[in-house]
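Let us practice reading a record.
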Amino acid sequence: MTRRVRILVLAGSTLAAIVAMALVPRIPQDQSYHNFADHRALIGVPNFLNVVSNIPFLIIGISGLVFLTQSNSTKRLLTAPERLAYVTFFLAVSLTCFGSAHYHLSPNNDRLVWDRLPMTIAFMSLLTCVICERINAKAGLMLFTPLLMIGAGSVIYWYLSEARGSGDLRPYVVVQFYSGLAIALIAVMFRSRYTRGRELLIAMGLYVLAKVFEVLDPVVFNLGRIVSGHTLKHLAASVSIWCILRMLVRRVPKKHASDAWGYCARAR
């Protein structure tokens, strides 16, 4: 499959996802979503495990930001757009800790918006990273701001539509699920400029596992009433992000990475 055909496949799948979601009736937020299986409080904190299980996001996010400030990180990032996208990604991951913890203290729509905003920024930042590394760094830089606006806009649109009594999650669904699919497609169809590129697929697999835990929240909790599926979702998602950080720390550029990628190291 030629490079042009692969890009057309990616563009076609993106268009198909948008059209398919546009044809689906609007999707309001199901209020039962806020009723998680594990309500147990501890040391005065309601929904304790769902709240504190967000702490790994902060630890890994800050670890990523610290790594990106170190001089040896320049050997793992060939271009300035990649660094910008990864800084935004790890910053959004850090903020997800606070947004998700705030939501789980008292789950409702008004708090859920602060949970979803940093998550969509993280999704879109990671998508930008993958575009930069595997397709074209200049294109990734051009898409960076529009992708962030689309991600944040999908959450704001949902929240405002709920306030009007006509809630519509469709744009957010596309952002959350298709961005992950797009990352996986790019990882499969385009080779990375760096070693350890396959570890991105491991990270995406762990994120899929996190979503499975989310769906099975009460089922997991009822197995032994020790931990809920949603708590495990937070932990699996954290491990997914840790895999991305480990990939960055351990990888090195391949010998024949060149300026043909569209935005070379001189752009720093």
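A brief commentary: The domain at 47-252 is CATH 1.20.1070.10 (Rhopdopsin 7-helix transmembrane proteins).
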